[in-house]
């Protein structure tokens, strides 16, 4: 690839890859559902307690287990296993947990 063609490449060219576009759309849809849930939990906690500290601790309790405990273990696991299968199973399990909720 020449310098001229690299400079003129569209930043959206990656979306021509069907698999990438499907994964991106799926993750975007998940965030559309997840972000309002987090916002609603924070608003509910503030209405119930009137405390910004309680809201902060609620948000921390939501993020901390995923980031520290699952993230550290999953990082090692993902490096050693088939990533496509891991993504599929993670989405299936996440869907089941959401449906059970």
Tell me what the structure shows.
This protein has 101 residues and is mainly α. It has one domain (12-100). The protein contains 4 helices and no strands. It has helices spanning 3-8, 18-49, 52-80, 83-100. Helix 2 (18-49) packs antiparallel against helix 3. The longest helix has 32 residues, at 18-49. It starts with a helix and ends with a helix. The model has no long low-confidence stretch (mean pLDDT 83).
Quickly count the helices: 4
Structural class: mainly alpha
Sketch the major β-sheet.
none
Please give the oligomerization state of what you see.
single chain
What is the averaged pLDDT score? 83
Helix-residue proportion? over 70%
Number of strands: 0
Rg from alpha-carbon coordinates:
19 Å
* Helix and strand run: HHHH
* Number of structural units classed as domains: 1
Strand-helix topology:
Blueprint (H helix, E strand, L loop, with lengths): L2 H6 L9 H32 L2 H29 L2 H18 L1
Helix pairs in contact: 2-3
Descriptive keywords:
84% helix, mainly alpha, 101 residues, 4 helices
Summarize the structure.
The protein has one domain. Helix content is 84%, strand content 0%. The chain is built from 4 helices and no strands.
């Amino acid at each position: 690839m020449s310098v001229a063609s690299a400079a003129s490449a569209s930043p959206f060219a990656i979306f021509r890859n069907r698999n990438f576009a499907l994964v991106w759309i799926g993750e975007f849809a998940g965030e559309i559902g997840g972000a309002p849930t987090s916002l609603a939990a924070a608003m509910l906690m503030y209405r119930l307690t009137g405390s910004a500290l309680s809201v902060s601790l609620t948000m921390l309790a939501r993020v901390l287990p995923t980031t520290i405990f699952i993230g550290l273990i999953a990082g090692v696991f993902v490096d050693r296993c088939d990533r496509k299968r891991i993504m599929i199973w993670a989405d299936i399990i996440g869907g089941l947990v959401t449906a059970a909720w």
